[in-house]
Amino acid sequence: MSRFPSIDTARLRLRPIELSDAAALHAALSDPVTMHWWSSAPRTSLAETEAYVRVNVEEKTWRCWAITERGDDHALGWVNLSERRAAVFEVGYILVPQVRGRGIAAEAVSGVIDRMFADGARRIFADVDPDNAASVGLLERLGFRLEGRLREEWETHIGVRDTLLYGLLRREWRS
């Protein structure tokens, strides 16, 4: 039995991530464009991707859902959620390059937000590189509000980077 339930949306099924998803997710985790704004460099081998996915499978302090299309169990990306304080969660997401631009990230993240607010979360937040226009746009379309900028917050494979904090409160969410 999984640690947390699957989530169904109009087109998608989000289910607990499995180590067997590593091969499908390697398309995202090894892609320099996808990983440019990530806090770590692209994976250079499937073995590195498997090790990274294993952390998401085994970690007990967060939930990581593989994004799949209904009727097809092939992982297209993931949404993960970490409880930072009681009823306060940080969300993150990634998609394989082949499915970007189809609204999959918005639908998947919305599904997770719906579930978490229904289950009692009061706040969900994300941190994003200020130059990651696609992710900033997604968060803003979903109703997240810019709450602040942390200067030189992350040391990443592309250098020391600022981060923007976006937050969404349950009472602000429009499913």
Q: Which labels suit this protein?
A:
175 residues, alpha+beta, Aminopeptidase, eight-stranded mixed sheet, 5 helices, 35% strand, globular, acyltransferase activity, transferring groups other than amino-acyl groups, GNAT_dom, N-acetyltransferase
Tell me about this structure.
Strands 1-2-3-4-5-6-8-7 form an eight-stranded mixed beta sheet, sandwiched between helices. Helix 1 crosses helix 3. It has one domain: Aminopeptidase, CATH 3.40.630. With 175 residues, the protein is of the alpha+beta class. The protein is built from five helices and eight strands; from the N terminus they run E-E-H-H-H-E-E-E-H-E-H-E-E.
Classify the helix fraction into a percent range.
Answer: 25-40%
The radius of gyration over CA amounts to 15 Å
CATH class group: Alpha Beta
Give me the side-by-side strand order of the main sheet: 1-2-3-4-5-6-8-7
What does the average pLDDT come to? 94
Secondary-structure element string: EEHHHEEEHEHEE
Q: What percentage of the residues does DSSP assign to strands (E)?
A: 25-35%
Query: What is the CATH third-level topology name?
Result: Aminopeptidase
Number of helices: 5
Report on the biggest sheet: 8 strands, mixed
Uncertain segments: none
What is the CATH superfamily?
Answer: Gcn5-related N-acetyltransferase (GNAT)
Query: What's the number of domains?
Result: 1
Q: State the separation between the terminal residues, measured CA to CA.
A: 28 Å
Report the CATH architecture: 3-Layer(aba) Sandwich
Q: Count of DSSP E strands?
A: 8
Q: What's the shape?
A: globular
